[in-house]
């Protein structure tokens, strides 16, 4: 008895293709991100930011960590979605 379903397999392949395309778009977009000083995302934390974005977890800040100054450990700030239409100052 064969329980395989070719329709499910075709859906899985299409879903994987969509995920790959989404990751490609996110990677391209993140390459253009910069802070107020024009500095892009630190290379060592970039893939984490990409994957969080792919999971619809928007980031607000990130750092790969720096021994010479600041925090030596990597970190990522995750933003809450704006579900009520207010910005960070409380205005809508």
Topology:
Layout: H1 6-30, H2 43-54, E1 59-63, E2 75-78
Antiparallel strand pairs: 1-2
Helix pairs in contact: 1-2
Strands of the widest sheet, in order across it, are: 1-2
**Helicity, in percent?**
40-55%
Given helix and strand content, the structural type is mainly alpha
What percentage of the residues does DSSP assign to strands (E)? Answer: 5-15%
Shape: globular
DSSP strand count: 2
Low-pLDDT runs of 5+ residues are none
CA(first)-CA(last) distance: 60 Å
Count of helical regions:
2
Supply the number of structural domains. 1
Write down the Rg.
19 Å
Largest sheet: 2 strands, antiparallel
Please, what is the average pLDDT? 81
Listing every helix as H and every strand as E from the N terminus to the C terminus, the arrangement reads HHEE
Tell me what you see in this structure.
The chain has 92 residues and is mainly alpha-helical. Helices cover 40% and strands 10% of the residues. The chain has one domain. The chain has a two-stranded antiparallel sheet with strand order 1-2. It is globular.
């Amino acid at each position: 008895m064969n329980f395989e379903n070719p329709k499910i397999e075709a859906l899985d392949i299409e879903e994987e293709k969509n995920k790959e395309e989404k990751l490609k778009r996110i990677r391209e977009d993140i390459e253009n991100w910069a802070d107020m000083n024009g500095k892009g995302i630190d290379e060592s934390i970039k893939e984490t930011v990409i994957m969080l974005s792919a999971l619809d977890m928007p980031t607000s800040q990130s750092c790969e960590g720096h021994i010479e100054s600041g925090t030596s450990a990597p970190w990522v700030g995750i933003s809450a979605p704006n579900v009520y239409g207010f910005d960070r100052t409380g205005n809508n």
